[in-house]
Amino acid sequence: MSDLLLSEDEILLKNTVSDYSKNELAPRAAGYDESALFPWDNVSGIGDLGLFGLTIPEEYGGSGGTTRQLAIAAEEIAKGCAATSVVYIAHLSLCTQFINMFGSEEQKRNFLPDLASGKKIGAFALSEPGAGSDAAAIKTSAVRSNGHYVVNGVKTWISNAPEASIFVTLATSDTSKKHKGIEALIVESDTEGIVTNQLHGKMGVRASTVGEIIFDNALVPAKNRMGGDEQGFKQTMEVLNASRISIGAQCVGIAQAALEAAVDYALHREAFGGTISDLQGIQWMIAEMATEIEAARQLVMRSASLRDANLPFATEAAMSKLYGSRVAMESAHKAVQIHGGTGYFAPTPVERYFRDARVTEIYEGTSEIQKLVIARNILKNKDN
Q1: 347: cis peptide before it, omega within 30°?
Q2: Which domains does the chain have, with CATH numbers?
């Protein structure tokens, strides 16, 4: 994006995170991908920069800032290490933002400072073995008893779960109410009756650890429920709408990294009496990548700007994720193609970008779910 379209604060943030991403995240990305270890040093650096506190009010230990600034940071982090950007987004855009948006004053003061500093890692416990895209179908139960909720059930595919100290957990207090029975609870991971198991074998973003959380009569204080009765599902949808902006930005970062790797390779790879950058077929792929990436970036920034202006943004956020994930996949595909056989192997980064990009079409609402959201919103508002 041209700096002419950014404010002075946004330019400063972009340059700061870009430098950190280029000098610290990118050099470590391949090693973390190979080891699949949680990137604690990356998390520490992000915390030192105050990035975990973006959009969180200073009174709760945050850095303040806007959704646009969060999108800028997410893109730059993803450009250096996609796995680290998953950690960042799951922690900030889902867990921390949920508490910031819907927590009571007491809850915010108790939990946000450690999350906003990165002292504690957060996770968002929504998905279950039988409830992924269909969030209303969750079976984890939360029964009110003697000032607590007794929580039972299993959550799975939860990013950050093995390292998280705080889970924002969705559970149902009454299955007969369907989505209206869902409660949003703040759960501390050391609560008795909770076991977390790390899941292995991910295709990409391997350093972003994922876990299964088992609740076996876990007692969660009733004061840790966010909002009133029948509010949990609505709250969740609002948080997911906002988080899709961050995922769109993540997609742009992966795509931009793929483009830059492809351009650098094309300028240095010699074939047919010159560099392959002289070949029209290569030039067309680069032109398509650059155009699509900029279009995806503008969708992200438009949805972020709408949210910052307190205007409806859910449709644009879904568009950002739908189109951004497609661009990330297509850009990674073209980058591998430009590299040829070399791109199929590590240590070239493009094979990692290809694997990392794949999940963006799946998590936080599949591409098919985004199409449903977009179409339903358009049809619902056709007369407005």
Answers
A1: yes
A2: 3-120 (1.10.540.10), 123-228 (2.40.110.10), 233-380 (1.20.140.10)
Looking at every residue in the chain, the average pLDDT score rounds to 96
Concatenated DSSP letters of 161-211: TTT-SEEEEEEES-GGGGGGGEEEEEEETTSTTEEEEEE---SS-TTS-EE
Please classify residue 94 by burial: count the beta carbons closer than 10 Å to its beta carbon, then call 0-12 exposed, 13-18 middle and 19+ buried: buried
The secondary structure element, H or E, covering residue 159 is strand 148-159
The percentage of residues in the chain with a pLDDT greater than 90, rounded to a whole number, is 92
| Predicted local distance difference test score (pLDDT) of residue 176 | 84
As annotated, the active-site residues are: 364
* 220: alpha, beta or left? (left if phi > 0; alpha if psi -120 to 50): beta
Q: Hey, how many other C-beta atoms are within 10 angstroms of the C-beta on 67?
A: 26
3 pLDDT higher than 80: no
Mean pLDDT within 22-30: 98
The one-letter amino acid at 25: L
Residues whose CB is less than 8 angstroms from the CB of residue 12 and which lie 6 or more positions away in sequence, other chains included: none
